[in-house]
């Protein structure tokens, strides 16, 4: 759900202007994920079992291959490049030196979003466009219900180009941000495939 501030609200948020990262501090601790995209508030429910299993397995696989100067993090950790944008990718890879204790103020090298019924449209459209605009070199989307990995890399025009789609037991041999092998079917326990 996307919300734009309109008038003073019950949480003490000054409205009538785009939301900012400072408004996020007034959001309730209710299990939802609160993100900002160009001043619009995105509210999504907590992820489900398949989603979380994929995140855990992929973070583990990435961490095993990650060079020492890079870091692999999972949500909730914010990419906050400006005051009206704060996104919490399911997984990100960034330079260790770019991270602060609170967030990542620059574009990461890799963003991974795992699709959920409630986030599918945002992940495939609005968030993809935002990551492209921020200059995130690689954007991966995982559909745990198929299972399928779709990989986009920034092209010379600054727009995402489809690199590959791999499904089930097919392997993707990533080169960026570092070499790693990803098999979508292996991201879920056998009984959940």
Question: Could you walk me through the main structural features you see in this protein, from its secondary elements to its overall organization?
Answer:
By secondary structure, this protein is α+β, with helices and mostly antiparallel strands. It folds into 2 domains: 2-43, no CATH class; 47-192, tt1808, chain A (Alpha-Beta Complex). 19% of the residues lie in helices and 33% in strands. It has helices at 21-24, 49-65, 120-134; strands at 2-3, 33-37, 40-44, 70-74, 78-82, 85-87, 91-95, 103-104, 110-114, 138-143, 148-154, 160-167, 172-174, 180-182. The strands form 4 sheets. A 6-stranded mixed β-sheet has the order 4-7-9-10-11-12, sandwiched between helices. It has a 3-stranded antiparallel β-sheet with strand order 1-3-2, with helices on one face. Strand 11 (148-154) and strand 12 (160-167) form a beta hairpin. The longest helix is centred in the first third of the chain and has 17 residues, at 49-65. The chain is globular. 33% of the residues are buried. It comes from Saccharopolyspora erythraea. Pfam families: Uma2. One of its GO terms (molecular function) is endonuclease activity. InterPro entries: Nuclease_put_TT1808, Restrct_endonuc-II-like, Uma2. Residues 23-179 form the Putative restriction endonuclease domain.
């Amino acid at each position: 759900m996307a919300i734009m501030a309109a008038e003073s609200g019950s949480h003490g948020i000054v409205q009538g202007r785009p939301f900012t990262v400072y408004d996020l501090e007034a959001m309730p601790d209710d299990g939802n994920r609160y993100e900002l995209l160009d001043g619009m508030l995105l509210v999504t429910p907590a992820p489900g079992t398949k989603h979380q299993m994929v995140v855990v397995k992929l973070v583990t696989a990435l961490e095993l291959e990650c060079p020492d100067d890079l870091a692999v993090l999972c949500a909730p950790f914010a990419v906050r490049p400006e005051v009206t944008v704060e996104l919490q990718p399911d997984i990100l890879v960034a330079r260790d030196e770019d991270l602060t204790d609170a967030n990542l103020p620059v574009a990461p090298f890799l963003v991974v979003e795992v699709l959920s019924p409630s986030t599918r449209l945002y992940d495939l459209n609005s968030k993809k466009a935002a990551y492209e605009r921020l200059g995130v070199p690689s954007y991966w989307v995982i559909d745990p219900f198929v299972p399928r990995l779709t990989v986009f890399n920034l092209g010379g025009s600054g727009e995402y180009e489809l690199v590959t789609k791999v499904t089930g037991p097919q392997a993707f041999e990533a080169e960026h941000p570092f070499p790693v092998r990803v098999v979508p079917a292996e991201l879920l326990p056998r009984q959940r495939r």
